[in-house]
Amino acid sequence: MPGGRERVRAKVPATSANLGPGFDALGIALSLYAWIEMAPADETSIALLGNGTEGLPSDKSNLLYGIAQRVFDEAGVRVPELEIAFAGDIPLARGLGSSAAAIVGALGAANALIGEPLPRDELFRIATEIEGHPDNVGPAIYGGIVTAIWDGERASHIRLDVPAGLATLVAIPTYELLTSKARAALPETYSRADAVFNLSRAALLTAAFATGKLDVVRHAMQDRLHQPYRAPLVPGLSRVLSEASARGALGAALSGAGPTAIAFVDEASANGRKSELETFLREAMSVSGDGRDVELRWLAPSAEGLVVEAASDRLQDALSEGGLAR
Ligand SMILES: Nc1ncnc2c1ncn2[C@@H]1O[C@H](COP(=O)(O)OP(=O)(O)O)[C@@H](O)[C@H]1O
Ligand SMILES: N[C@@H](CCOP(=O)(O)O)C(=O)O
């Protein structure tokens, strides 16, 4: 491939979007990853190696192939046949940005395959256009915490380092909730009081992250724009939102469009209350009541976003030999 690579592999982090009040505006990258590999081929093949990918198409109708072709079209290059492989630890349709990771990884891999004609900010613009909002694709590309806007044509963002000592615990239910369904539950209009309630908290939360003032996070995580309307779709969410701060968390939120819940903890003041928070989240989010249908994970924030490298072996081989850095 002139100026490009023969085989490339993109690594993309999971994300938690919204963080409570920052609906469609704020998100954080988490250390759980998806890999998307591409190489030119004589005939297109798509290997889906991740858990939960069974129902996804493995022909040219797959999202990953379509996005790669969009990059080639924008760059005026033709690569009609591709060998694509996807593997990932990010569970699908749980509010941890699986679709954002797939979009960002496909954009990054396709761009690298043809010599990176598109700058990273253009990848962000295209990813936002495809996803419809910038709050999960932003941290997936840039890592850290990202605050962003989208006006339908242009996307602007600022990336913040994650404050030292901020730990995140996610409670992932076994059931899926598609973002499209969780968005359909939202009203068309909001009152001025609710708009002011959210914009003041989103601004305070962003400033708290930017300055490392973790004690302010607990006052800034409430939301009136999406969580109250999504709570009927996520059993236990209302309890988590109202009680998590009394159980050792700085605050809690619905992760992305759900159904995962995310709690923030200040390592410096957790004072041995992590197991209390774990027990509480497991109990509250369990539909079966015995907690076995909820997976708890302490996921460190990921400072790194999209990384694309030349690959010397196939993703299948790297996976089976334990060669993927998690
Ligand atoms: N590797 C992939 N290939 C094709 N489609 C994918 C891939 N990963 C995710 N998707 C699509 O994204 C959907 C999940 O996206 P979404 O409902 O936004 O949930 P979330 O992004 O929170 O996991 C899946 O049902 C699937 O249609
Ligand atoms: N702001 C969006 C975020 C969706 O994130 P996802 O990771 O669940 O796709 C929303 O809340 O709808």
TrEMBL record:
Domain named GHMP kinase C-terminal: residues: 208-277
Compartment annotation: Cytoplasm
Record: residues binding ATP: 91-101
GO terms for cellular component: cytoplasm
Keywords linked to the UniProt accession: Amino-acid biosynthesis, ATP-binding, Cytoplasm, Kinase, Nucleotide-binding, Threonine biosynthesis, Transferase
The keyword Kinase is assigned to this record: yes
GO molecular function terms attached to this record: ATP binding; homoserine kinase activity
Main enzyme class: transferase
Pfam family, one: GHMP_kinases_C
Family: Belongs to the GHMP kinase family. Homoserine kinase subfamily.
Function as written in the Swiss-Prot or TrEMBL entry: Catalyzes the ATP-dependent phosphorylation of L-homoserine to L-homoserine phosphate.
Name of the protein described by the UniProt record: Homoserine kinase
UniProt organism field: Paenibacillus antri
